[in-house]
Write a structure and sequence with these properties.
The chain has seven helices and seven strands; from the N terminus they run βαβαββααβββααα. By secondary structure, the protein is α/β, with parallel strands linked by helices. It has a single domain, classed as 3-Layer(aba) Sandwich (Rossmann fold). Helix 1 packs across helix 2. It is globular and about 45 Å long. 38% of the residues are buried. The N terminus is likely disordered. The structure holds adenosine-5'-triphosphate and magnesium ion. Adenosine-5'-triphosphate binds next to helix 1 and helix 2.
Length: 168
């Protein structure tokens, strides 16, 4: 995933605390459209759920966003529906099918933690959000890789919206 010919520029951002990641996600949320997919990649504790919390809150989700590690999928109502999945514990392809991802994608915006594990079941059009650890405990590197037509037209807007974090 993210390695095909339609892959575009990677936006490299940095945050130095959880509030930074929440703020970045909130800024990004202003650009999303119905049907968008964000694939969240990063080790345990990188900040995928923290990112989703900031993202959902910015879209008017009032309910607390909790890790869907055991439930696999949570659905929140905001200005848009926010589907939050964590496929870390997904056992087999039948379980992946049971999540009915194509149907989820028709409704609101979908974020999938550990989504790279089910790359074959996901559409090419998505934004990959890859969170990795930086030098200090709370430092994170957040690489955003837009892929496909859905994101092409929003590339420069994406760069503008995330300027505060790309220039750090
Ligand atoms: N810059 C930062 N960005 C995000 N989280 C941070 C940052 N600095 C510290 N943290 C802390 O790191 C933790 C991130 O946890 P979170 O549950 O979001 O990770 P995750 O990637 O979803 O892990 P998992 O794979 O277990 O679901 C939180 O405790 C958060 O407060
Ligand atoms: Mg998580």
């Amino acid at each position: 995933m993210g390695m095909d010919a339609t892959n575009m520029a990677t936006l490299r951002c940095r945050t130095s605390n959880v509030e930074g990641t929440v703020g970045l996600a909130a800024a990004l949320a202003q650009l999303v459209e119905e049907g968008d997919l964000l694939v969240l990649t990063g080790d345990l504790g990188a900040g995928k759920t923290a990112f989703t919390q900031g993202f959902a809150k910015a879209l008017g989700v009032a309910a607390p966003v909790t890790s869907p590690t055991f439930t696999l999928a949570n659905r929140y109502e905001g200005d848009l529906v926010v589907n939050h999945l964590d496929v870390y514990r997904l056992e087999d392809t039948q379980e992946a099918r049971d999540l009915a991802i194509p149907e989820l994608l028709e409704d609101g915006v979908t974020l999938i933690e550990w989504g790279e594990r089910i790359a074959a079941a996901l559409p090419n059009d998505h934004l990959a959000v890859c969170i990795s650890f930086g030098d200090r405990d709370d430092d994170r590197l957040i690489a955003l890789q837009p892929t496909g037509e859905r994101w092409r037209s929003r590339l420069s807007a994406l760069g503008d919206a995330l300027e505060d974090w790309t220039s750090l």
